[in-house]
Design brief:
The protein has 7 helices and 27 strands. With about 500 residues, the protein is an alpha+beta fold. The strands form 6 sheets. A 7-stranded mixed β-sheet has the order 11-10-12-16-7-1-19, with helices on one face. A 5-stranded antiparallel β-sheet has the order 2-3-4-18-9, with no helix packed on it. It has a 5-stranded antiparallel β-sheet with strand order 21-27-23-24-22, with helices on one face.
């Protein structure tokens, strides 16, 4: 069995990168763009076989190209000119009674970009427009199969334990991880010049000799910048619910071994910008601040960058079965994808996170803003109730003569006659307003620090609508509720991002 020591890339990345030839930057993605059965690489134009945790630009859709990534108005990751998308399967806990429970991610992924040019000192290239690839095999259920499909060491796990000592493994750890389970995947970096391939892997190849810094084969002579994902999951919440003689977690495709971990990448970089970073960012600190090519998006903005799911099914909480047709298969033989279990294959209209009161109250939803305890978006009206609903808040604000109402943290209502500039919803950005109302679990009352904003209609009422930017693959007969933002809208949103960046501490 292939094993790795504690000094490997997974545990000692910063310590091992000591020379300019090993320069890299580490890009955090504080938020999750969406959790959904979507995969525009493997299941382009349709519903994916299993749930993914997806990060990156809000141009993500069920079918997409480079132009759609560039229509993004925000990203859940932190570099402004990267509107790429990054995704891996979602994680579930399998209970002793056979039911499944979703495991919460510890935010979004961390994506490493590494200048690993191999023993021949190859010229490293940026990803081109319309480039995409995947790493790993969702159907793998053995170490040998994973090593064959990727390269030894390309898929790994770290059981985070900051007090007792973290440990690394090839498959799922067989003990609780107090500070999180970190799943890791390294992508191939040798390229044959094609933007994609039928299996989405053959146009790429791992370097010979070592997956992260070997020589490229003659069949794939072009050397691209290397990328490496870390996704961390809060498994400690289930520490008292282990049973039997095996660990209880499964990937969304029904993998209890961990060998079926896989990752997908769709390039959305400004290619010239990325190439400049590849050529000039030679720090080995890993900090994106040390690459002066980049402008950062503040964490609060990345956390607000989301898209609504469009597949109408339950994917979190307690489930009778994994979403899609994904029976748990232990291997060691590779799993066979299933279908025909009755799981939906319909891409519907995007979910909405507001209450339509245009007819009943003559108020309209204007979007999800960002509130701050030190500088409130709406003043001076305030009310709080454990039974708060959208209607309750609007009635309170209207009764006090205010024209704006805002809800947050499920139970709080704010009122005013104007909205502070710093709290205005960003154009085309859904925002983090997904907390259920204290008085009605079918309604949404902001978030933290998201605030659901409503305005008294002045003539015609029109709710702000959010869908998948530029997506036209909905199988519903109702037209898509959002179009691609104009260039002016995108510039306005980015100016707003920069303004927040100057204020954020």
């Amino acid at each position: 069995m292939y094993t790795r020591g504690m000094g490997s890339i997974a545990l000692g990345l910063v310590a091992t990168l000591a020379a300019p030839a090993s320069a890299f930057w580490r890009m955090p993605c504080p938020g999750t763009l969406v959790m959904e059965r979507a995969d525009p690489i493997v299941n382009a134009g349709g519903v994916s076989g299993h749930v993914h945790q997806i990060a990156g630009g809000n141009g993500f859709g069920f079918k997409m190209d480079y132009a759609q990534t560039q229509a993004s108005s925000c990203s859940s990751c932190l570099i402004q000119k990267d509107m790429s998308n990054y995704w891996t399967p979602a994680l579930y806990y399998k209970a002793e009674n056979g039911k499944f429970e979703s495991v919460k991610p510890a935010g979004g992924p961390t994506v490493y970009y590494q200048q690993r040019n191999g023993p021949n000192n190859d010229k490293l290239l940026a990803f081109p427009k319309d480039f995409r690839m995947l790493a790993g095999n969702a159907n793998s259920r053995s170490l040998e199969q994973t090593a064959s499909d990727t390269a030894p060491g390309a898929v790994s796990y770290v059981c985070l334990d900051y007090r007792g000592g973290s440990s690394e493994s090839d498959g799922f750890p067989t003990k609780n991880c107090p500070d999180g389970l970190r799943a890791q995947i390294y992508f191939p970096s040798c390229w044959n010049g094609e933007l994609d391939s039928p299996d989405h892997r053959s146009h790429m190849h791992y370097p010979i000799g070592h997956y992260d810094n070997g020589a490229c084969p003659d069949t794939h002579p072009k050397h691209l910048i290397s990328i490496f994902y870390e996704f961390t999951w809060q498994v400690d919440a289930f520490k008292d619910r282990w049973y039997g003689d095996t660990q209880p977690f499964v990937w969304a495709q029904g993998d209890p071994t961990g060998f079926g971990f896989h990752g997908d990448f769709v390039n959305g970089w400004d290619v010239d910008h990325l190439q400049k970073a590849v050529d000039t960012c030679t720090s080995n600190s890993g900090n994106i601040e040390d690459c002066h090519v980049f402008e950062k998006i503040p964490n609060s903005e990345s956390n607000s960058c989301m898209i609504p799911p469009s597949v109408n099914e339950q994917i979190d909480g307690v489930l009778d079965a994994l979403p899609g047709c994904n029976p748990v298969t232990n291997g060691p033989a590779s799993a066979t994808p299933q279908s025909g279990c009755g799981a939906t294959t319909v891409i519907g209209q995007p979910e909405t996170y507001f209450t339509d009161v245009t007819q009943t109250k003559k108020w309209e939803y204007i979007g999800c803003g960002i509130d701050n305890v030190g500088s409130r978006v709406l003043t001076p009206g305030y009310s709080a109730s454990a039974k708060m609903t959208v209607e309750t808040c609007i009635d309170y604000c209207s009764g006090k003569g205010y024209t704006y109402a805002g809800l947050e943290y499920s139970t709080q209502c704010y009122c005013g006659n104007s909205i502070a500039q710093q709290g205005l919803p960003l154009p085309g950005v859904l925002g983090n307003c997904k907390m259920k109302c204290g008085g009605d679990s079918g309604e949404y009352c902001g978030g933290g620090p998201g605030i659901s904003l409503y305005k008294k209609c002045d003539g015609t009422c029109q709710n702000a609508q959010y869908g998948i930017t530029g997506n036209t693959t909905s199988s519903s007969t109702t037209p898509s509720s959002i179009s691609s933002p104009s260039a002016n809208t995108k510039r306005s949103a980015r100016r707003h991002l920069r303004a927040h960046l100057n204020r954020e501490t």
